[in-house]
Specification:
Layout (H helix, E strand, L loop, with lengths): L4 H13 L19 H20 L4 H7 L16 H17 L8
Length: about 110
Amino acid sequence: MTSDISQWVAALDVVQGLDVDVVVPGHGPGDHEEVPADAARPCLLDWLSAVASAVASGWSREETISRVSFSERYPVDIGQGYMMDHIQTLNAASLWDKLTAPAAGGGL
């Protein structure tokens, strides 16, 4: 929600490159053939692309928060549905802030 997407993608690359049979993630399956990176990378890049498009279209922070949503496409873990609005808001707001920050202080 407030993470650095480029660091996440780099970390996922490291995990996928490990020569292991089993991965024990904090969430989801542990089969190395289905490393969480396979699901996480598209989600992260979809969020980045959607918010970058919103910024390029001149949407305000509030407009981006209200219009960019992946709740149907990337649902939360079972039992955490009550957090969806919070997660959606933080994802959109955090990325909007990072993408519109001055070059010296910003970064993904």
